[in-house]
Amino acid sequence: MWYEELGYDDNPLEANPFRVNFPLVNRSREAADILYAIDAGNMLVIEGKDGIGKTMLLRHAITKHRGKGKVIYIDGNTVSKRLNIESLLVKRSGLFRGRLLKHKPRGMILLFDNVQQLTKKNCEHIKYFYDQDYLKSVIFTLQEYKAAPFTDSLRDRIGERVIRLRPLDDQEAAQVIMQRLPKSWLAPDLIAGILEESEKSLALALQHTSYLMDYAAANKKEKLTKTEIKKLLRERTREMPAAQGDLCPDCSSPLEHIGEYWRCSHCDTYCKNCGAAVDKDDADCPECGIRFTTVARGEEDDE
Amino acid sequence: MTWYQSLGFSSNPFSIKPAAFHDELFGYEGAVEDITKKIAQGSVLLLTGEYGSGKTTVLKRIINSFRGQKDVIYYSCNEREKSIDFDSLLSGMTFFRRLLGIRKTGTILLLDEAQDMSRKDADNAAAYFHKGYFKSIILVSHKQADLLLTSPLRELLKDNVFRLSKLDRKSAIALVRKRIGNLQFLPDDIIEKVYAANSNPRQILRNCEAVCRRAAEDGADRVLVKHVKDVLD
Predict the structure, then answer these.
(1) Which end of chain A is more exposed for a tag (fewer CB within 10 A), N or C?
(2) What is the per-residue pLDDT across A260-274, written as a single tens digit (0 to 9) for each?
(3) Measured between CA atoms, how close is A157 to chain B, in angstroms?
(4) Same domain as B131, residue B178
């Protein structure tokens, strides 16, 4: 791989915020608001488009609170509709105190990434656990707060605490890419070319850059021109109808398109009929109701 | 350092969690007195009020006022997905009592979030009331219309409905003062402005937090009118 030849162990342009550790670019106000909400025991919503940096902000909050066993991170894209918030809390207390005595820890911090679907029951659970201080603070991220499936009572607890993430301007976005590579490698005008093709998504811009580095290394090209970059990225975008790319961000195997979801047969557990995320022990799909045989459910590999 | 830490609080004094501050109730003393009287007589009542108006806080006060004299069960209907297991509530969950099937009588049942109660729960509640296990039942719900009332329960309820009305100005100031004491960082006239913007108790607390945070970030030694304007407009 190109980055190995250049002396990196891992891809520095990795778009998954949990795999790399680079400082936030020009998000200090938002980061401070999140840390404050966690400290003060509030509910907060962060809204913004795909790839704009929501998960990056959450990762920043996790780094600040790690080591105390207080943070629960859930990614809404990979959990089943049947997710039970209560059992998550109970599991935290371990086998004896938790499972047997139903003890729940207090003062936990819930970070709920990509809340696309939240059943009414889970809304009520979150609200109840928040009121009783089992959950000290809750941070949600999603694309559109207005369209989110929150109950009125949950919305009332959130109140006006909604942060709308603005997209970074081109200079800031260029900084996100440049801070990951030695300065001389990519000329600013090339980065501008990449950003033009990235629809304000930082995640996509990083994937694009990584793809170009890959291409340059494979074809032994010293330099790419701006027109070449445009052509390459247009081709790439055409080949991948999904916004996030046709490859799994975790294992780089091709994704399968089912219904409105893109699923990786190695990393996700999902319903092969409608594509919804499901639990391993689900007997039927919570979304389309189909009964599972071993064939109907794509399962995560254990390796 | 957050604004409340620099004022000497270890945690956010304007927390909106009903469980965080005990024994704090302003403006609804009359309602609580009436409810307590009704409970002592033994009846089924309903308490309604807007989101954040203090329904759960009123319940906490009622629990406190009966502490040590009567058995009070507080149950939040949104806590579990299953229907309510009245037997285990009544036997107090202790193993011995469960084994022998001993159930207490004359208990007071507080059902929070009663809109999540199922039809079966409602019928069961009425049946247990008739058998004398529950002396009084207090249902708490956002709106009466949302409530799933079966006819036996509706008969018991009759017109015992209490609605939490708006908080008055004086009570609003008392509520905030209870949280932060006589701190001049947040003067009374500012609290009045916050109250004027929105008189819902939960919203008052949240807005007070916002203006205090704003003023502290501004480096001011007290909250000024412009901070209120910044935050609430």
Answers:
(1) C
(2) 777 887 777 888 878
(3) 8
(4) no
Q: Which chain A residues have a beta carbon less than 8 Å from that of B142?
A: 152-153
State how far the Cα of A129 lies from the Cα of A41, in Å rounded to an integer.
Answer: 12
- Cβ separation A127–B11 shorter than 8 A: no
Same domain, B39 and B145: yes
CATH of domain A28-164: 3.40.50.300
CATH number of the domain that residue B52 is part of: 3.40.50.300
Domain final residue, candidates B117, B132, B163? B163
Of A40, A128, A152, the CB nearest to B51: A152
Chain-chain contact of B19 with A125 (C-beta, under 8 angstroms):
no
Give the pLDDT score at A303: 39
Predicted complex ipTM: 0.80
- Best mutation target among B205, B206, B207 (most A Cβ atoms within 10 Å) is B206
How many Å separate Cα B155 from the centre of its chain?
25
Whether residues A128 and B79 touch (CB distance < 8 A) is answered with yes
Q: Are A41 and B56 within 8 A, CB to CB?
A: no
Those residues whose C-beta lies under 8 Å from the C-beta of residue B62, and which sit 6 or more positions away, are: B32, B35, B36, B39, B72, B110, B138
Are B81 and A41 inside 8 Å of each other by CB?
no
Instruction: Print the domain residue range for B193.
Output: 3-14+167-232
Cβ A36–B16 below 8 Å, yes or no? no
pLDDT in tens, A69-111: 889 999 888 887 777 888 888 777 776 666 666 677 888 999 9
Domain ranges within chain A, ordered by starting residue:
28-164, 168-239, 247-303
Are B77 and B129 in a shared domain?
yes
Q: Is residue B123 domain-shared with residue B109, that is, in the same domain?
A: yes
